[in-house]
Amino acid sequence: MSSVSPFHGLSAFPPTPADINGRVNTEALCRLLEPLCDAGVASIGLLGSTGIYAYLVREERLRAVKAAVECVQGRVPIVVGVGALRTDHAIDLARDAKTAGADALLLAPVSYTPLTQEEAYQHFLAITKAAALPLCIYNNPGTTHFTFSRDLLQRLSDIETIRAVKMPLPADGDVRGELAALREKTGLAIGYSGDWGAAEALLSGADAWYSVIAGLLPRTALALTKAAIAGDGNETRRLDGLLEPLWKLFKEFGSIRVVYTLVEHLLLAEAALPRPLLPLGPTERQLVLELAEPLTALEHQSLL
């Protein structure tokens, strides 16, 4: 396992190529991971939301982790999503990930019946006791329908292996204010998802960008991340401007539909959305490919 911290800098979240029955194409997955390693991302977020973790059975999730660990060979830390409705199922997934060689865990409080703050705390506590790997809290109320209070994040930060939190963009846009409040209460590394707000989040002092687009365009995303960490606002916003057409598509169609359209095109391999999700129609698909073409060309240039 890698000794590099996976919770600072750019964490790239690739899609998980699978067929319509949820069988993971491990060869195609490795083809996605190689450019992430070559680019030098800080970590790989395997089986995140874009990695369709919630739609894959335990056996397929384990196959994906084993294949990723074998492919990456310790070059980049692998953070594995282990969210599940039941605590015992999440424990099984966390143990699977640890046994397979994952470097860290990403845990979302997946729910059907809404969870209380105490239920979420006990869920996290049980999983950290079962698999002692560094863990990132996955705060994603848009999919889990659970919102962490700052008091809960403070309690969780007292658990030794919980090291980071992956936050959604704040509704009021005040990233600096949120960062200050969270740092006052916790010692967690604080990163953000929501690719269209990543530039400002990083410029505001966020520790990490948990990025969907970095799963396909790692070099471009990494250039943006490095510019922001260096405090170069002009270069950060220039690169963000190049990606703006994709941000608009993400907001209109959902990032997962856009990314799976692109991955099938780029890999020439099946990457089916799990039903009931449906692929984009022909007109929307063509729009995605046309807008993404100059960005994929840029990705392969020697200099950005």
Describe the protein in words.
There is one protein chain. The protein is globular and about 45 Å long. With 304 residues, it is of the alpha/beta class. Strand 4 (104-107), helix 4 and strand 5 (135-138) form a beta-alpha-beta unit. Helix 3 (87-100) packs parallel to helix 4. It has a single domain, classed as TIM Barrel (Alpha-Beta Barrel). It is built from twelve helices and eight strands. The mean pLDDT is 95.
Summarize the structure.
This protein has 304 residues and is an alpha/beta fold.
N/C terminus separation: 31 Å
The averaged pLDDT comes out at 95
Helix content: 40-55%
Total helices: the number is: 12
Rg, Å, rounded: 18 Å
What would CATH call the architecture? Answer: Alpha-Beta Barrel
Measured by DSSP, the beta-strand proportion falls in 5-15%
Write the layout of secondary structure elements.
Blueprint: E1 9-12, H1 26-39, E2 43-46, H2 58-72, E3 78-81, H3 87-100, E4 104-107, H4 117-130, E5 135-138, H5 141-144, H6 150-157, E6 162-167, H7 175-185, E7 189-192, H8 198-203, E8 208-211, H9 218-229, H10 233-253, H11 255-267, H12 282-299
Parallel strand pairs: 1-2, 1-8, 2-3, 3-4, 4-5, 5-6, 6-7, 7-8
Helix pairs in contact: 1-2, 2-3, 3-4, 9-10, 10-11, 10-12, 11-12
What attributes does this structure have?
single chain; 304 residues; alpha/beta; TIM Barrel; eight-stranded parallel β-barrel; globular; Aldolase_TIM
